[in-house]
Amino acid sequence: MIIVGGSYYDNSSNICPILIKGRLIKPEYSKIFPSLFEGIETPKGKMKSGKFVFLYETSIGTFSVLTCFDFPNIIYSLTSEKIDFVINPCYDPQISRFQKDADSVCRNNEITIIHVNRTNNSKDKFGKSGIITKEHHDIIARNMSDGYREKSDPDYLIAKLNSEEILIADINLESKGPTVGVPLEYHGRSSINKIYRYDQCWIAL
User: What is the pLDDT of residues 26-68, one digit of tens each?
Assistant: First the structure.
């Protein structure tokens, strides 16, 4: 199990700790590019910029974490690396702009990108957390009919969330792209499931 536990401020750095098999990986990744308000003030003053982007090699593939604005500023420089997926924790009302970049990276480099954006049930919620991965258009159309995405979403956004939900996706990272034709036994390289939060209880569908 891999846990991406962030982000939060520690000594004015916006850090995102990574736990792999229960072990905290050091050094911790620290956000490099501040947002507008972070360039002015954080809870403890102006954000200290990190210096490094890390690639984590695991038994299930290689991944990286890019917090918020680190994603559009760094993702294209990672496309030359052997990388399977990128996790992008955000606190942004306009995450759709990041997903357009993600769709382009996924299309051209077959990198799976997981956007996780802040949300709540109030009027100022952001939401639109989602997974962008290479998938056959018939499977994406099925996901849309099942309510996991909308027609206006980027091509390879296979599923997204708009409220306090958990998205569970089983993605075959060994098969970077789906087959051109769809054989009868083909059910997609990804399977999606949602868990809805209702009245403090978790209901798995």
Answer: 988 999 998 877 766 665 668 889 999 999 998 888 999 999 8
pTM for this prediction:
0.82
- Residues 112/171, Cβ–Cβ less than 8 Å: yes
- List the domain range (segments joined by +) for residue 98: 2-204
Cα-flanking dihedrals φ and ψ of residue 96, to 5°? -60, -30
For residue 145, the SS3 value is: helix
- Which residues lie below 8 Å from residue 59, measured CB to CB, with a gap of 6+? none
Cβ-Cβ contacts under 8 Å for 99 (sequence gap 6 or more): 115, 128, 130, 132, 153, 154, 157
Smallest CA-to-CA distance from 84 within 192, 2, 26 is with: 2
CATH number, domain containing residue 147: 3.60.110
- Name the helix (H) or strand (E) containing 198: strand 190-198
CA 100 centroid distance within chain:
13
- Burial of 117 per CB tally in 10 Å (0-12, 13-18, 19+): buried
Count the neighbouring beta carbons within 10 Å of the beta carbon of residue 162: 13
